[in-house]
Write a structure and sequence with these properties.
This protein is α/β, with parallel strands linked by helices. It contains 17 helices and 14 strands. The chain folds into 2 domains: 3-157, Enolase-like, N-terminal domain (Enolase-like, domain 1, 2-Layer Sandwich), CATH 3.30.390; 168-418, Enolase-like C-terminal domain (TIM Barrel).
């Protein structure tokens, strides 16, 4: 295979949601409709909640094909050592550097091409989202050069021979805590609601919310449907309870008891100042929860989000699962390494990302998840649930059709609706 890049285009676009200053929100910013009153406290923000931008990258190949990737950040940028928001004024500089790095070059594999992105002359806050979008385009270029799917490129280059397995989708119901749960049940999501808990009142209503979800599953789910429940604290529980492990453990156990017989996954309940503190906090909490006999499980995310950090969390068994935030890992090679670190350490690999991504980045993530047999994939972008699920499900179905394997099963949804 030869990947010959003869041209490059980069234009401004928008991503699937907005960016926000999480620290300002969690420390008292007053909500005003969709927005928040007051001034931001984290670097890189002009307002607490802002429109987000994407850099839309296209690579022209010698064979006449065009490959695409989108450079994006997550919603809660600037928190937990994450990059700051992308700014339109940096686009021309990025385009020039990528043109110098890629145009006129020939690569023999996706891995070789993506590895060159590690030498881009940018500070981290730009380099990470740029490498994310550029590596998407290079994977697409490898597939278009070889005349195969991106899934097949990855399986060949990483010597994967195991049978295909379809990952379960995880839903973000944060945009509508109640209406989207009903949609998730009707669509038979493997896991939901991933509600973003950012304020004390969100924590206070959690037991009642869990009880309500169980009633909805009972009323609108079929007898063979048993989803996992996923609660994302964004560190807010630790902030409220001052990281008291006994109090945090007690609260999590009470909520998981309310959720029986369903499995509950709690994401980032504890507050931390750096990655080492976060890893140690989560490791100690996991030990305490396991010793208590609690049925709940922990997911690491906020500090397990940079290249190489997932391996540390997985190696320390600091959580039962890790959400691999693809934009925060930058180069797709880093997300792939993170998946493998989880799998090698018997930690569940949840290939996540952000509602702030784009249709292009979401489609590419489907191929990574399918190729590497991840546990869960986040349905993205956006908070409407339907749109992200449509983009990723259809990409998955098309790819399975090309591969000649069984794709997503719609029969149970159809039977439920028709019944």
């Amino acid at each position: 295979m030869s990947i010959d890049i003869v041209g490059l285009q980069m234009v401004p676009g928008i991503s699937g949601f907005w960016v926000q200053d999480q620290l300002a929100i969690q420390t008292g910013a007053k909500k005003d409709g969709f927005f928040y009153e007051g001034s931001p406290v984290s670097p890189g923000f002009l307002r607490i909640k802002e429109p987000s931008f994407a850099y839309c990258l296209s690579l022209q190949l010698k064979n006449g094909a065009t490959a695409m990737g989108d450079c994006v950040t997550v919603v809660d940028v600037g928190y937990a050592d994450r990059p700051i928001p992308l700014r339109l004024e940096n686009l021309s500089m990025v385009k020039e550097a990528l043109t110098d790095q890629l145009v006129g070059k020939n690569f023999t594999s996706f891995k070789q091409a993506a590895a060159t992105l590690e030498s881009l002359p940018f500070p981290d806050y730009i380099a990470i989202p740029i490498a994310y979008g550029a590596s998407q385009a290079l994977l697409d270029a490898a597939a278009r050069s070889a005349g195969t799917t991106m899934t097949e490129v990855l399986r060949k280059e990483f010597a994967i021979e195991a049978a295909y397995e379809i990952p379960g989708f995880a839903a973000v119901c944060e945009g509508d805590w109640y209406g989207n749960v009903d949609k998730a049940i009707a669509r038979r999501f493997a896991m939901f609601p991933h509600c973003g808990i950012q304020r004390k009142e969100d924590v206070d209503r959690l037991p009642e919310y869990v009880a309500w979800m169980l009633e909805r599953v009972k009323k609108y789910g079929s007898s063979d449907y048993k989803p996992d429940l996923h609660i994302d604290f964004h560190s807010m529980l630790g902030r409220i309870l001052e990281n008291d492990l006994d109090k945090v453990c007690k609260f999590l156990c009470e909520v998981s008891d309310c959720a029986k017989p369903y499995q509950v996954y709690f994401e980032d309940p504890l507050l931390a100042r750096n990655v080492d503190e976060a890893r140690e906090n989560m490791r100690r909490l996991r030990i305490k929860l396991d010793a208590s006999g609690a049925s709940c499980r922990l997911i690491a995310d906020e500090w397990a989000n940079s290249p190489g950090s997932v391996a540390k969390f997985a190696g320390d068994h600091a959580a039962h699962a890790v959400q691999i935030k693809m934009p925060d890992n930058g180069n797709l090679l880093n997300s792939i390494s993170a998946i493998r670190s989880c799998q090698e350490n018997d930690v569940l690999a949840y290939l996540g990302g952000s509602v702030n991504e784009t249709d292009t980045s979401a489609r590419v993530s489907v191929h990574v998840g399918l190729a590497f047999k991840v546990w869960r994939m986040l349905a993205k972008p956006g908070k409407g649930l339907d749109e992200g699920l449509m983009i990723m499900t259809n990409e998955l179905a098309r790819t399975c059709g090309q591969l000649g394997i069984t794709g997503p099963d719609f029969s149970t949804q159809a039977a439920r609706i028709e019944g």
